[in-house]
Amino acid sequence: MNKNVSWIFELTLTKGNPNDLKKLMVELVESTKNNEPGTLAYEWALNEDNNICHIHERYSDSNSALMHLTPFNENFAERLMAIGDATGFVVYGNPSNELKAALEAFGGTYMSPIGGFTR
């Protein structure tokens, strides 16, 4: 069985602007790419109105996701939430109980796999 865990986090820009978001994104992407080998995908997207951001994150397993959350919470979470409000969070896969506990503050919906494949 595939151990990948992924999520899409939605942020609505209510307190900052797209330039603030993009500056923080550059830092987060660089930190994640250089320090987290278990991060398989880390992609940010902005809607046409530049007020809704989706962050797609995919990890090789729950431990890799937990490895991401430590530096995120220590260095970036407060700054991200100063730009906007969390307006959606959907988790895919079978996260461990430890990961679910770490994600509890974000709320969210958990989607369990029922079929398909990943290459």
Quick summary:
This is Antibiotic biosynthesis monooxygenase. The protein is α+β, with helices and mostly antiparallel strands and 119 residues long. It has helices spanning 18-35, 62-75, 77-81, 97-103; strands spanning 5-13, 39-46, 52-59, 84-93, 109-111.
CATH architecture: 2-Layer Sandwich
Ends apart, CA distance between termini: 13 Å
What is the count of DSSP helices, taking H or I runs of 4+ residues? 4
Shape: globular
The count of DSSP E runs of length 2 or more, i.e. the number of strands, is: 5
**Within the CATH hierarchy, at the fold level, what is the topology?**
Alpha-Beta Plaits
| Unreliable segments of 5+ consecutive residues | none
Q: Overall mean pLDDT score?
A: 96
Q: What's the gyration radius in Å?
A: 14 Å
- For the record, the CATH class is Alpha Beta
Question: Spatial order of the strands in the main sheet?
Answer: 2-3-1-4-5
Sheet-strand content, in percent, reads 25-35%
How many domains in all?
1
Main beta-sheet strand count, sense and barrel state: 5 strands, mixed
| Structural category | alpha+beta
Helix content: 25-40%
Q: What is the ordering of alpha helices and beta strands?
A: EHEEHHEHE
Domain ABM: 8-68
Protein name: Antibiotic biosynthesis monooxygenase
Pfam family, one: ABM
Keywords: Monooxygenase, Oxidoreductase
